Amino acid sequence: MKCNCRLLVFCGLVLGTTAFGQTKQEREYRIAKEEFPEMAISSMDTHLNDVKRLRFYKEIDGKKASYEIKFKKGKLHYSVEFDTQGGLEDVEFVIKPNDIPDDVFAKIKTYLNQIHGKHRLKKIQQQYVLDGEAPEALLKKAFQNLLTPAINYEIIVAAKDRTGYGKYEITFTAKGEHLSTRKSVNPNYDHVLYE
What we know:
Blueprint: H1 2-20, E1 26-31, H2 38-44, E2 52-61, E3 64-73, E4 76-82, E5 88-95, H3 102-115, E6 119-129, H4 135-143, E7 152-161, E8 164-173, E9 178-185, E10 193-194
Antiparallel strand pairs: 1-2, 2-3, 3-4, 4-5, 5-6, 6-7, 7-8, 8-9, 9-10
């Protein structure tokens, strides 16, 4: 009986941690435009008119590498991510809580209050992930800020857990349903890492 109890506790811990978090580390650093995939730059040419603060980055996430263009267009801060071949992966831009529909934000807040009682929202991004549609169609939706059922909300949260305060990247669907959580790792890097 004692052995079965230990086995149940062990299984519960393993299943609980795999459902709640991912082990993933990101390292992002700035690169020159010449180091960016040519296919990605050519696909973005028409969208980069009148942008400010145009920057190019390479991101290494464990074994996966990707490229990111970051810029400000209008009043929004965009991040467009590409794979190593230059294929579009996703588009994100920074938003405020009042940009999320009230019922969806209420669901998100309920989840955050249940999981992280004491927390603070650091950053919210609206995310458009390429999932079977044409890259140009996704870019058009993202730059028009359309609220489609396929968007996600990526939220950076400072929250208290068992070991103290930490930062988390939590992703929700357009309906406010939890998709994933990653805890950040803060070594001496220029940009935040996530595990």
